[in-house]
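INFO worker-7 received task bundle
INFO bundle size: 2
INFO processing item 0
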Amino acid sequence: QVQLVESGGGLVQAGGSLRLSCAASGSIFSRNVMGWYRQAPGKERELVARISSGGLTNYADSVKGRFTISRDNVKNTVYLQMNRLKPEDTAVYSCNAGGLLFGTGGVYWGQGTQVTVSP
């Protein structure tokens, strides 16, 4: 059974940092592009970052230089290190598996984790 489980969300002040983790079942992790998306209230879900199995990355312009996506292919886990957080980063962040590095996302989703950045 495909499973993606996120953790690490929470409340942080602007300028602070959080690290999100997404543990994936091995069958969907090892060869797939993994990504993070977010959805703020009243807005459409948007790409935050993706990473290929070999470590190539793709970031949304709004997070470049502040967020870093990485993966541990032994632990089947993808991470999102978020630094210099802004109130506009407040959203539900969801892990995604599959899809293309510079194209559409995959069909597998985690349940999401809330990130709230206070001014």
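INFO item 0 finished
INFO processing item 1
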Amino acid sequence: QVQAVETGGGSVQAGESLTLSCVASGAALAVSSGTWYRQAPGKERELVATVSPTGSSVYPDSVVGRFSVSRDRWQNTVYLRMNNLKPEDTATYYCNLKGFYNGHYSFDTWGQGTQVTVSS
């Protein structure tokens, strides 16, 4: 069974940066794409960044120019670099990884969530 484990959340001041990591654990696997979402209390889950199997990335207007998603295929890890953080970025961040294991079985797994708190 493939699991996704997130690290890197924390509490920062506005204007500071954080990098979140999401690593897929398991044998003989390959991550093909990764997506980061966030959910603030009382709000719906929002997509904040996605990296496709070709390496292209997509961001909503709320984070474009500040957030950057990347993938390390060798480490089966997807990163979210967040610069110039704002209080409205405060949320629980979740990663979703898709890929293959044992050659041809597909997986679609979610991380447990990591809290990011930005104070003004």
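INFO item 1 finished
INFO post-check item 1: The chain is about 0% helix and 60% strand.
INFO post-check item 1: The chain has a mean pLDDT of 95.
INFO worker-7 idle
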